[in-house]
Design brief:
By secondary structure, the protein is of the alpha/beta class. Helix content is 21%, strand content 41%. The chain has a single domain, classed as Trna Endonuclease, Chain: A, domain 1 (3-Layer(aba) Sandwich). The strands form 2 sheets. Strands 1-2-3-5-7 form a 5-stranded mixed beta sheet. A two-stranded parallel ribbon has the order 4-6. It is globular and about 35 Å long.
């Protein structure tokens, strides 16, 4: 419900793949029947999470490895799930959707 996809059939799982030059592990994938995949990164922190340049690079690497490995033509939405939200900065611009644990378990 928090993602607004409660009426859409979806498969949820973690993912590990190895591209030509790199490997990646994705915390959670939501592969939806509406031809969309949420690539979810999870951060458990006791305050709002502040993304760094390394976080941004890691997410971009994971997404590109996933796309290279799977050859999916589905729409991909990068989703951050945190305990207390994220601080908006120049590194958080790669996040398209944000959820907190409170939103997931309401």
């Amino acid at each position: 419900m928090a993602l607004g996809i409660s009426g859409i059939t979806a498969n949820v799982f973690s993912w590990f793949g190895k591209g030509k030059q790199r490997s990646a592990q994705i915390d959670m994938l939501i592969d939806r029947a509406d031809r969309t995949i949420n690539i979810c990164e999870m951060k458990f922190w006791n305050r709002p999470y502040t993304m760094t340049a390394k976080d941004e690079d890691d997410i971009e690497r994971k997404v590109s490895t996933f796309l290279e490995t799977t050859n999916t033509d589905k729409n991909v939405i990068v989703t951050m799930i945190t305990t207390k939200g994220i601080d908006q900065n120049e590194h958080s611009e790669c996040i398209q959707r944000e959820l907190t644990l409170d939103e997931l378990f309401c």
